């Protein structure tokens, strides 16, 4: 079989062996319900609380500020909808950005239908929100600022500290979707004045279907799932113990290896970026050159359409993703690429490659050579390229 | 997601490229939507499509439908080519996913646009051929984005 080169780690990651080993006993041996009275079940509470400690420590927060959820989307929904509900007496205005994940954007759109007002901040050509615009957008009725820590498509890291300080000075809650950043870059909730933070285990070699929402003590937030008394009555439902334990292990490993991974991935990332920009003409890098996640690369190849590119890469065993309309099922390409000012036709030709610790230089060399061949083949077939060459010769 | 035939035509497109001596060229689609097809015809004095080429900017289905469309019209008269519908293109490819049906429509329209261009150049009227509406320049004027 052809070698698989998996460069879609921003979509999901491989669960690490250590994580699986940690989880397995909780399926068949320690399967008791943590809420039960008998020792066999209730001892699982210990495993859950230990996980809370580990994650709290990773964020510089208290353990009891961590609430387990089913993942990033649920955490985003909870943070935004429940804040809106709990603070609606204070105001009805929310500030977010145009490049948020759909879990944030569609939740905000839903709240607009319920009578809330939402400001969607513009970003600059690198995908960084404009702090001046944020300042201007703040109203006496603003109850929440929700800005992602790092963008999932273009990897740009937002100025968290400045945003947090602005929110704090104006007595506005600050939520961040850190699904892509958590485990990739160090995060301290106090340093950045973060009041709520969403994260997901499967982006950091943990299992799917488990995540958490950090909620700072003192933040009024309504229960999101009503039912039993789990998660301090704020999120009902029998705890996903294997998931929680697995996430805890994944976080532990991610935090302890964060520096060496970042160093290794950043080197490979920059090697990939530099060679492709040099060796493939009419190509641009999307996202900030340095303020970006260590494992994220996002190119636009002019005159080429993204889905075609992905299928051809797939035939060579390379997994990537694209912001092209054809991959999203709509007519419009990625909202993030449009927000950084790319024309539609260039946004259609985007390719995101997200590296992992396992990615080798040999993999990257093969990927670069393959990209060169495929882009040339597709351009030779592209009427846009033909027109461009004719008009410029 | 795609049938074997679609994958085959995407990987090994038939008649891809440009035709220097084309006497009918049609371009349809819109780069904003991520699909542009251009078809080149070399039509002889007996109104037979002697040669055909295509160039496409678009997804796998767009490339495959262009490729199949060129196969279906090659060697045919212009009136036979006019009968090649998007349905025929889709059937020849063993079907397309529902979200990709518009690619086959684009292929049909590209054939019509190339025939229209030929008819205009020759100063003839091809009965049953309407001016293709999905012309790239008309589309641009709409500006609905």
Automatic annotation (TrEMBL), chain A:
Q: Where in the numbering of this chain does the Aminotransferase class V domain appear?
A: 5-365
Cellular compartment(s)? Cytoplasm
Query: What EC number(s) does its UniProt record assign?
Result: 2.8.1.7
Q: Does the keyword DNA-binding apply?
A: no
Q: Which InterPro entries does UniProt cross-reference here?
A: Aminotrans_V_dom, Aminotrans_V_PyrdxlP_BS, Cys_deSase_IscS, Cys_deSase_NifS_bac/arc, Cysteine_dSase, PyrdxlP-dep_Trfase, PyrdxlP-dep_Trfase_major, PyrdxlP-dep_Trfase_small
The pathway it acts in is: Cofactor biosynthesis; iron-sulfur cluster biosynthesis
Reading the lineage from the top rank, the first entry is Bacteria
An example of a Pfam family matching this protein is Aminotran_5
Q: From the record, what ranges are coiled-coil?
A: none
Q: Does the keyword Transferase apply?
A: yes
Which GO-annotated molecular functions does the record name?
Answer: 2 iron, 2 sulfur cluster binding; cysteine desulfurase activity; metal ion binding; pyridoxal phosphate binding
The residue range of the signal peptide is none
What residues bind [2Fe-2S] cluster, as annotated? 326
| UniProt keyword annotations, A-Z | 2Fe-2S, Cytoplasm, Iron, Iron-sulfur, Metal-binding, Pyridoxal phosphate, Transferase
Q: What class of enzyme is it?
A: transferase
How does this chain assemble?
Homodimer. Forms a heterotetramer with IscU, interacts with other sulfur acceptors.
Its biological purpose is as follows: Master enzyme that delivers sulfur to a number of partners involved in Fe-S cluster assembly, tRNA modification or cofactor biosynthesis. Catalyzes the removal of elemental sulfur atoms from cysteine to produce alanine. Functions as a sulfur delivery protein for Fe-S cluster synthesis onto IscU, an Fe-S scaffold assembly protein, as well as other S acceptor proteins.
Q: What family, per the record?
A: Belongs to the class-V pyridoxal-phosphate-dependent aminotransferase family. NifS/IscS subfamily.
Protein's name in the database: Cysteine desulfurase IscS
Q: Which species does the entry assign this protein to?
A: Anaerosacchariphilus polymeriproducens
- Gene encoding the protein: nifS
UniProtKB/TrEMBL annotation, chain B:
> Ranges for the NIF system FeS cluster assembly NifU N-terminal domain?
1-122
GO MF terms listed in the record are:
iron ion binding; iron-sulfur cluster binding
Traced from the root, the source organism's taxonomic lineage reads: Bacteria, Bacillati, Bacillota, Clostridia, Lachnospirales
Official protein name in the record: Fe-S cluster assembly scaffold protein NifU
Natural source organism: Anaerosacchariphilus polymeriproducens
Encoding gene per record: nifU
Q: Which NCBIfam families match?
A: NifU_clost
One of the protein's GO biological processes: iron-sulfur cluster assembly
């Amino acid at each position: 079989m052809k070698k698989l080169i998996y460069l879609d780690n921003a979509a999901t990651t491989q669960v690490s062996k250590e994580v699986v080993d940690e989880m397995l006993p909780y399926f068949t041996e320690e399967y008791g319900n943590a809420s039960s009275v008998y020792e066999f079940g209730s001892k699982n509470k210990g495993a859950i609380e230990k996980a809370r400690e580990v994650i709290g420590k990773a964020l510089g927060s208290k353990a009891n500020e961590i609430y387990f959820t089913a993942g990033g989307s649920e955490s985003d929904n909870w943070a935004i909808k429940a804040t809106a509900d709990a603070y609606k007496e204070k105001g009805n205005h929310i500030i977010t950005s145009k490049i948020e994940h759909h879990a944030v954007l569609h939740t905000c759109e839903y709240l607009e239908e319920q009578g809330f007002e939402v400001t969607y901040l513009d970003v600059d050509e690198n995908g960084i929100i404009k702090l001046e615009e944020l300042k201007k957008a703040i109203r006496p009725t603003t109850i929440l600022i929700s800005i992602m820590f790092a963008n999932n498509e273009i990897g740009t890291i937002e100025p968290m500290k400045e945003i947090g300080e602005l929110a704090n000075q104006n007595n506005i809650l600050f939520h961040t979707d850190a699904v892509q950043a958590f485990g990739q870059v160090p995060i301290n909730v106090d340093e950045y004045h973060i009041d709520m933070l969403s994260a997901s285990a499967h982006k950091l070699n943990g299992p799917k279907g488990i995540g958490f929402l950090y909620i700072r003590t003192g933040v009024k937030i309504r229960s999101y799932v009503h039912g039993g008394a789990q998660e301090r009555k704020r999120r009902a439902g029998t705890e996903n113990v294997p998931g929680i334990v697995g996430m805890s292990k994944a976080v532990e490993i991610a935090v302890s290896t964060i520096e060496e991974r970042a160093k290794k991935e950043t080197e490979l990332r920059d090697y990939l970026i530099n060679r492709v920009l040099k060796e493939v003409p009419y190509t641009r890098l999307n996202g900030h050159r340095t303020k970006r996640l260590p494992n994220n690369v996002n190119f636009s190849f002019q005159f080429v359409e993204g889905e075609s590119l992905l299928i051809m890469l797939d035939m060579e065993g390379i997994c990537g993703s694209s912001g092209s309309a054809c991959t999203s099922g709509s007519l419009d390409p990625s909202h993030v690429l449009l927000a950084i000012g790319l024309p539609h036709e260039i946004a259609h030709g985007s390719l995101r490659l997200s590296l992992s610790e396992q990615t080798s230089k040999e993999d990257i060399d093969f990927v670069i050579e393959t990209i060169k061949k495929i882009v040339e083949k597709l351009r030779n077939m592209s009427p846009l390229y033909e027109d461009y060459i004719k008009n410029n010769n | 997601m795609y049938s074997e035939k679609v994958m085959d035509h995407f990987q090994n497109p038939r008649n891809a490229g440009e035709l220097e001596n084309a006497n009918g060229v049609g371009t349809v689609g819109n780069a904003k939507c991520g699909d542009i097809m251009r078809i080149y015809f070399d039509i002889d004095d007996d109104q037979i499509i002697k040669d055909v080429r295509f160039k496409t900017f678009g997804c796998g289905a767009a490339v495959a439908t262009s490729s199949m469309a060129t196969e279906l019209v090659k060697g045919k008269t212009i009136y036979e080519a006019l009968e090649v519908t998007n349905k025929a293109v889709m059937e020849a490819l063993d079907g397309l996913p529902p979200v990709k049906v518009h690619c086959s429509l684009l292929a049909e329209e590209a054939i019509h646009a190339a025939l229209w261009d030929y008819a205009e150049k020759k100063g003839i009227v091809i009965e049953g051929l309407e001016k293709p509406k999905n012309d790239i320049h008309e589309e641009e004027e709409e500006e609905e984005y």
